[in-house]
Amino acid sequence: MTPPPPPQPVATTPPPPAAHPTHAPMDAGQARRPALPRVTELLLSAFGGHRGTTFRLGDLTLLAGPSGTGKTIALRAYEALARLGGGAELGEVFPDPSACVPERARPDAQRRRGFRIGCTADGPEGPVRLEVAVQAEPELRIVGERLSADGLVLLETALRDPRRRTVQAAWHTAGATAVTRAPLPDDRLGTALLPLRVAGTTEGQLRVLAAAEQMLVALRSVFPCDPRPERMRAPVPAGSGRLLPGCENLADVLWRTRSECTRRHALLVDAVRVGCAGPVADLLSEPCAGGRLVRAVLERDNGVRTALRRLGDGELRYTALALVLLTGPGVLEADVPGEVPAALQCLTVLADNLDRAQDPAQRAALLALAARMCERGHIRLVGAVSDATWAAGVPGATVVHLRRD
């Protein structure tokens, strides 16, 4: 017998109102829509330990719970959707797909097992919902996908012939024919292919394109971040200038950001003063090893410089996360839609173990910084923490509590 689904996670604080420009309402009874596309719900119908779970996401969201409650797997699902939205192949996104299948999922008569994930993206087109069904065994493939808005199915795909590496797709046309049908590959997200396949000559096609583009813009601007102090202490080659998810090239990125944006760098130094021990006058990079490498240092008030390799794990993680919150897509190794103006993008940072190695003062300062940056509307944060009692009372924070049962 299939076990009953676990209780839904509960958000103790509702998502905050948008702090960015909005379009005028379409009519008097319609809520104002955000101008910047953003993911407002993560849908884990059957993924890992989650069944029938919906995470409602605000601009600043903390997934809180003890180990084993599925915080990390939820962030992985979000990241997977983002990569699929960027056009990545299924095998690249899920190198171990069997690990995503619910443990007690039983194979059907053809020995097939899989998982289902999705999300809702809000924006100028209103809420748009994406649902994806993936077969993990015996071979990895997308077997079904649905893109819908206002109760209308805009795109639907289904696996008709298991012998073919395609799915049958049908998208809304509302022209001489109600739908257009065509095969699509079973290893890529159909929604990501629509802008290349839909002509946009009818009102229905234009609606499909607008909904697909809103979903893709919302999904693609994602930066998964989990700073690794053990990798941040060594000098690094100069030249990349884009921060990696593990923040191991922090010194190289500081070399660039300190000269390119003095105002944000000053804010970073202010933040570091709170999170690092001792006086801090500046945070910078300096050449070493004959100029071939750079290392990050703290400059003290008396002119003494302390190499970041001497800092504790908590100080290094705090510094890296503060830099991520204060910078933008041009500095982070993120797949942002280059065809969309920066003013119309909203970057989402996925931070696993956000509170790891952080003392109470560091946690509070980091969350306050996140709240200030998220309020501006061009960055969002979804972080996983073991306990969120320290986040109580932070304006705009949505806390989602997860339990092992």
Give an overview of the whole structure.
The protein is an alpha+beta fold. It has 9 helices and 18 strands. The protein has helices at 71-85, 90-93, 190-197, 203-220, 229-232, 250-260, 262-275, 313-326, 360-375; strands at 10-11, 38-47, 50-56, 60-64, 113-122, 128-137, 141-149, 152-158, 166-172, 179-185, 222-225, 236-237, 282-288, 293-299, 305-307, 347-351, 379-385, 397-401. An 8-stranded antiparallel β-sheet has the order 3-2-5-6-7-8-9-10, with helices on one face. Helix 9 (360-375) links the parallel strand 16 and strand 17. Helix 1 packs across helix 4 (203-220) and helix 7 runs antiparallel to helix 8 (313-326). The longest helix is centred in the middle third of the chain and has 18 residues, at 203-220. Mean pLDDT is 87; it is low at 1-31.
Gist of the model:
This protein is an alpha+beta fold and 405 residues long. It has helices at 71-85, 90-93, 190-197, 203-220, 229-232, 250-260, 262-275, 313-326, 360-375, and strands at 10-11, 38-47, 50-56, 60-64, 113-122, 128-137, 141-149, 152-158, 166-172, 179-185, 222-225, 236-237, 282-288, 293-299, 305-307, 347-351, 379-385, 397-401. Helix 7 runs antiparallel to helix 8 and helix 8 (313-326) packs parallel to helix 9 (360-375).
